[in-house]
Amino acid sequence: MNADKLLDAKGLACPMPIVKTKKSMDDLATGQVLEIHATDNGAQSDLAAWSRSGGHELLQSTEENGIFKFWIKKG
């Protein structure tokens, strides 16, 4: 999946992946996609809930070798 920006949040514990995601989303235009890489297990539920509450769309999430990858479209 193509993204307009990549956020590397690996090694960060809650709530930092969300804080960094919000900051990165502020730099994007509506409709652009942010790809996030995180290792915090809580990021799965946190980013899904944050996307919904912020009016964004979680397009896809995967887990590969302990790295969670998310693609969020800015609403």
UniProtKB/TrEMBL annotation:
Lineage: Bacteria, Bacillati, Bacillota, Bacilli, Bacillales
Pfam families found in the cross-reference section: TusA
PROSITE patterns: UPF0033 (PS01148)
Domain of life: Bacteria
Family: Belongs to the sulfur carrier protein TusA family.
Classification via InterPro entries: TusA-like (IPR001455), TusA-like_sf (IPR036868)
UniProt domain UPF0033: residue ranges: 7-31
SUPFAM superfamilies per record: SirA-like (SSF64307)
Name of the protein described by the UniProt record: Sulfurtransferase TusA family protein
